[in-house]
Amino acid sequence: MKVYLVQHAEAMSKDEDPDRPLTEKGLTDIKRVATYVAKKAVIKVGIIVHSGKVRAQRTAEEIYEVLTDTATVTSVKDLEPMSDPAIWAEKIGEQEKDIMLVGHLPHLAKLAALLLCGDANKQIVSFEMAGMVCLEKVGKEKWAVKWMITPEMVC
Asked: In terms of residue numbers, what domain contains 41?
């Protein structure tokens, strides 16, 4: 099983727009990353979930448009920046199909650390906006980083 963790793409500041939609750079970055990943990796997720915040939703929708083997995109609870990573660590453990989570920092970093080393407070993965990290289950309860892509890698 694989889980894909995606930090939302660059968004406008609260001063520019309180809803924080993606900037043009953010849209370009996530389209580039999604297109590259679709060509170079075999990604067949059953679902793409996002926090419901505009910046995460739009990022998820852009990925969905490129990854044609995805069943659906939906908003879920507990992917907000300050959510408890243990909630999604447990939910991921219950999944049968690969899943993609589109969210925010510090939540994604804490979730990755919890899955990889059992300690959400360790700094294990350095996320970037519009970056995608693929974790693969390598044992009953063990995970490893399979790959990571950032916008700068696919210029």
From this structure: 2-154
Handedness of CA 116, 87, 46, 22 (dihedral sign): negative
CB atoms under 10 Å from CB of 140, counted, come to 6
Cβ proximity of 150 and 128 under 8 Å: yes
Residue 96 CA to residue 43 CA, distance in Å, equals: 15
Residue 50's CATH number? 3.40.50.1240
3-state secondary structure of 44: coil
Helix (H) or strand (E) segment spanning residue 91? helix 85-94
pTM above 0.90, yes or no: yes
Task: Return the number of other C-beta atoms located less than 10 Å from residue 13's C-beta.
Answer: 9
Q: How many structural domains compose the chain?
A: 1
Q: What parts of the chain have a pLDDT lower than 50?
A: none
